[in-house]
Amino acid sequence: MNPLIRRGIRERLRTKHLIASGLFSLILCSTIYLSLYLYGASDQRTYDPHSQGYELVEGIPANGARAAFTSLLIFQGFLLMFLGTGRVASVTAEEKESGLLDYQRMTPMNPLFKITGYLFGLPAREYFMFLITLPFLLHCIIVGQLPWFGVLQLYAVFFSTVLFYHLTAHVIGLVVPKPRAASWVSRIAVLGLYVFLPALGQAGISFLSFLTILPTYFGKMLPALLPVGESELGRFEAKAADFWSEIPFFTSTLSPTVFTFLMQGLILLTLLVTAHRKWRNQALPAFSKPSALALFATFQFLLLGCLWPFFSDGSASGLLGEAFSSKNLSILQSDATLGLVIVQTVFLGLSTLAILSLVNVCCPNLHLFNKGIQRAEKLGLPRVPHSADESSGLGFVIILGLLTLSVHAFLLSLSARSEFWQSHPSLSEILLIPGLALLATCLYLQASRELWFNLGFWGFVGLLWVTPFLATLVITVGWQEEFIGSVLKILCLCPLSLLPIHLLTEYERLDGLSEELLDELRQAVWFGLACSLALAGYLQARLQLKRRANSRSSS
Amino acid sequence: MDYSAHSALPMIKCQDLKIHYGDHVAVDSLCFEVGKGSVYGLIGPNGAGKTTTIKAIATLIEPTYGEILVDGIPVLHQPEEARRIIGYMPDFPPVYDDLRIEEFCDLFAHAYGLDRNARAKKVEECLRLTDLMDKRRALCKTLSRGMKQRALLAKTLVHEPSVLLLDEPAANLDPKARIDLRNLLRRLASSGKTVLVSSHVLSELEDLCDAIGIMRKGNMALSGSLEEVSASAAASRVIRIELVESFPNLQNLLRESSSVSKVDSRDERIFEITHSGDRSEAASLLTTLTGAGAKVCEFHLKQSKVEDLFLEIESEDSSEDANR
Lengths: 555, 324
Hints:
The complex is a heterodimer.
Chain A: H1 3-12, H2 15-41, E1 44-48, E2 53-57, H3 61-98, H4 100-106, H5 111-121, H6 124-143, H7 148-175, H8 179-202, H9 214-221, H10 235-243, E3 247-249, E4 252-254, H11 256-280, H12 289-313, H13 318-324, H14 333-362, H15 366-378, H16 394-417, H17 427-451, H18 454-479, H19 484-491, H20 495-506, H21 515-554
Antiparallel strand pairs in A: 1-2, 3-4
Chain B: E1 10-21, E2 24-35, E3 39-43, H1 50-57, E4 65-70, E5 73-74, H2 79-85, E6 86-89, H3 101-111, H4 116-129, H5 145-157, E7 163-167, H6 175-190, E8 194-199, H7 203-206, E9 211-216, E10 219-225, H8 226-233, E11 237-243, H9 250-256, E12 260-265, E13 270-275, H10 279-291, E14 296-302, H11 306-323
Parallel strand pairs in B: 3-8, 3-9, 6-7, 7-8
Antiparallel strand pairs in B: 1-2, 1-4, 4-5, 9-10, 11-13, 11-14, 12-13
Helix pairs in contact in B: 3-4, 3-5, 4-5
């Protein structure tokens, strides 16, 4: 047995723990399950519109079991996904801070073996509490006559999701310095995965909703949970089941279970790479440059796959799909164009944020850069290899920018060829400014990351990207439309607002935009672009000068 | 530069080691060697870079520059190989609170690949060595700091490392436990293990180490065997002279000698002179004094203690800081 799993069992499952946690799980689970089961299985008084009176409908045990299934699943999720995730994150961070992790790091076990030990050893008590709930689940399946294959599919996704959350928590524990912060960051991450990402899924980026068990639950399990004799889902349930029944991806559709496994598998692989690196050496960045590029390329591929149907013929899943479905083709073309702008904005915004994260992780600070040069000299290499953690991130960020721009161009060319979209701005116009803006952003982010340490870098990004929003808020509240030009110019300092403002100016068919406002928008875009380019040029020059001065002083 | 201890084979070798934390230079151009089977003491005030150096040798910190070899294995390039032969004990004792001491040792014996029977035997042996057999079933969280330190030492020994890196191992021990630790480390060294031990209290190491290195602000101020360090501390030695009865002309006679730079007198019979000459010059000086009629009953070199030297280095540090 893995010594770390054995350690988890010894630490957290001594007799007193077994009794206490077993009772806790048993009492709570039986209370939740039995109350719902008994209520569902009892005779119900239902209103009959024909006789305009209440009728007594005889209760069936199967209905009770079906009614209790979801609550049981939520309780199991609470044990493993909420408690277990917090435990993995906080203990990993505590052990990192105290130095216990260093002992393990020094043992000759394979890092993958150590990761497995942490993932299954730390939440040993939570797994035990989960085991206590299994008799209830078995009762639910047998009495509720639930389809075994559907339940198996759901629980396969459930465990893959648990593994995904625990690994996320482990990586957060390895990366976030404070134990309490790590515990909360991981719990917030789990909540974010259930709330924030499904919301983005509604805006057409459907792959982001597949990091939870919700798609498989709604797409596969929900119809089986209807009371015996009923075949129609409620309005909300029907919408959810429809959203998650088939996933449009490029020109075909995928089952939600397959898609969930695909998404979680990719992210698990990424997290494993990070955990493996951190186990080998705590000081290594979370990703090497090649693995970061592979990750970003995969991200762009998934974005492209999910947005392809939307840009080619206006079909998408979620709320966006509903708004653009053939039933609603009568909607105003300007509204449709606005939808196009929104989806492009979401795409470019997500890509920019992904670039920011990867720049933060993969670009070396001055010390790491100098260390690379010294090591290359020692090894007799003419220069630091491009893929090394210590090498400059200039080429790396340019590739990230170009990848984003290529996918953006591809999506635009799809919409230009589509019969659904009637608004066709010139490709060169709609690519030139986003291209330059993205390139400038990549360059100044890379230069600032390599010039300054954490505080300087995040301070700079905060000042440039967040302060304009706050300033425009104050100006707008105080002076309303009086200073609209200035407000727009300040907003355009941040690429996250520059890009949508530019897109608005390019689609002529948008209603409600006066010529005067369009002029203001265009001026703001050029102002923002000029500032970004100047900043990129200045910071790159400063970086080169500083590196030269450093190499002179060290030689 | 060879600062090796009594054995010819260097088991630990640090060459031009530099470690930076951001702008802060923790270790700068550090060079030293530790011979196989010897005990080397790394001494220095807090913040001198001892812990950083030990962590770098233990493969837990990547040096900014320089090379570390452990038994000829470059730790930067082959950390996994090096880790197999290293036993590392940090300066404060983190343990798994909810494990019993024997389970704690067993965990690491298992992680280092020992089978069930070998584990039980080895764990018992290590607990016996560290005098923890009575406490083997106690939970780690119930132990005092000193006990935790011992449990940690038992865990460090469980995979039979040939190199032991002990960061302030005696910091929380009572006097008896310190003596036991000293004897244990001497025994381990005589069985061929190489021990690198750090402390900021010199007296803890003086009787234990074959060689010491005094660190200051990331640099090695002095390194070598205890005798070498003492000798280098006394480039100009102090000679104590005691007379049977006072001799009025003695101070003039001493000052006439070119090898005497300073004369201090405690009273009319006892003098301490700073002498920069060699042994034969010291002998000529004694002949001159007795020839002139001085009744010398004591004439000997006053040993400069390593402790004095260490304090001297520390006080240099503080005065530099004050001037800044």
